[in-house]
Design brief:
By secondary structure, the protein is of the alpha/beta class. The strands form three sheets. It has an eight-stranded mixed β-sheet. Helix 4 packs parallel to helix 9 and helix 6 packs parallel to helix 7. Bound molecules: aspartic acid.
């Protein structure tokens, strides 16, 4: 006997998956052009696996995603999940900033139902476009009981990643998405997911981030350290932001001139998180720099972009550095 098909709702935001360009070409295209209905028409087999509906939430290059869109989209998923009308969700998104949005949703959507983010590296008009398979498999993943309670997942090139650890690791190849040191959670073969791992970090329903009353998030900037980096950028950024993430060298380390400025800002109660510009590894508290002495926080395995997302949400709850560090340890 056939089981009832799951109801999966797609929220489309644009990106290359909906891009069009010169026939067959993989570059030189316009992203965010095709509506979700057009993408679904090319996937008749999808109807065998789920009842699929779609809405065009935005039509953007993902470099133009804003916190306003994050808030609106997360709240939309929350209300649709609560309504009981759907069993799972897919969000289509450009790959450039997908890792930031996926982590934002991972921390802030309040549902155990699967939420899968996907995109594509090649426009819909390219030879061997990757969008159709990614979209098809994302719907299958969102319809799978195995994806329940796993937080926000990213499906890309037959890999399943946690929204916490996923990042873009290549500027143009189809296998552009990676989990880095944390790897993938599982693999997809046609419409069948197989999970091998699970994140132990708290997410979705287990976080303290309730967006219901939030209209705007605190402003957090990232300061990128390099040889001879000008320390006055730290004061300039601090003047116009509520918190700062440092993309330090090695295990989140900066020059003595930068350290002096960080110390002065921390003494004034300005929150600063140390992350690293190195793609893999971690910034452990007290390693590389004396955080207890300076007053900085340590990002752990979060990249500067992801640390920024968590600091924005964290500062919406508290400015207490102990509580903020506890969030970096927990999420
Ligand atoms: N520029 C595109 C975007 O992030 C790239 C992509 O989708 O792959 O929206």
């Amino acid at each position: 006997m056939k089981t009832k098909r799951k109801r999966i709702h797609i929220l489309a935001t644009g990106g290359t998956i909906s891009g069009i360009g010169e026939r067959g070409a993989t570059s030189g295209y316009s992203p965010g052009v095709l509506p979700i209905d057009a993408l679904l028409k090319g996937l008749p087999r999808m109807l065998d696996i789920a009842e699929v509906t779609g809405e065009q939430f935005a039509s953007l290059n993902s470099d133009d995603i804003t916190q306003t869109i994050w808030l609106a989209l997360a709240k939309r998923v929350n209300s649709l999940a609560m309504s009981g009308a759907y069993d799972g969700f897919v969000i289509t998104h450009g790959t450039d900033t997908l890792e930031e949005s996926a982590y934002f949703f991972h921390l802030s959507v309040k549902t155990e139902k699967p939420v899968v983010v996907t995109g594509a590296m090649r426009p819909a008009t390219a030879t061997s476009a990757d969008g159709p398979l990614n979209l098809y498999q994302s719907v299958a993943l969102a319809a799978s009981d195995d994806a329940l309670g796993q937080g926000v997942l990213v499906l890309f090139s037959e890999g399943i990643y946690s929204g916490r650890d996923v990042r873009k690791g290549n500027t143009f190849r189809v296998h552009a998405i990676t989990g880095g040191d944390m790897g993938s959670l599982g693999l997809m073969r046609d419409e069948i997911p197989t999970f091998y791992h699970k994140t132990l970090k708290a997410h979705t329903t287990a976080t303290e981030f309730d967006l219901a009353d939030i209209q705007t998030l605190p402003r957090v900037a990232i300061a990128y350290f390099h040889v001879d980096a000008d320390p006055t950028v730290l004061d300039a950024l601090a003047a116009s932001h509520d918190g700062l993430v440092i993309a330090g060298a090695g295990d989140g380390v900066v020059s003595l001139r930068w350290e002096e400025r960080l110390r002065a800002l921390c003494e004034k109660g300005f929150p600063i998180v140390r992350a690293t510009r190195v793609p893999d590894g971690a910034v452990f508290r007290g390693a590389g720099m004396p955080d207890d002495d300076i007053g900085t926080l340590a990002a752990g395995t979060l990249s500067p972009e992801k640390a920024r997302v968590l600091l924005m949400l964290g500062l919406s709850r508290t400015r207490d550095t102990h509580r903020l560090q506890a969030m970096f340890d927990m999420y």
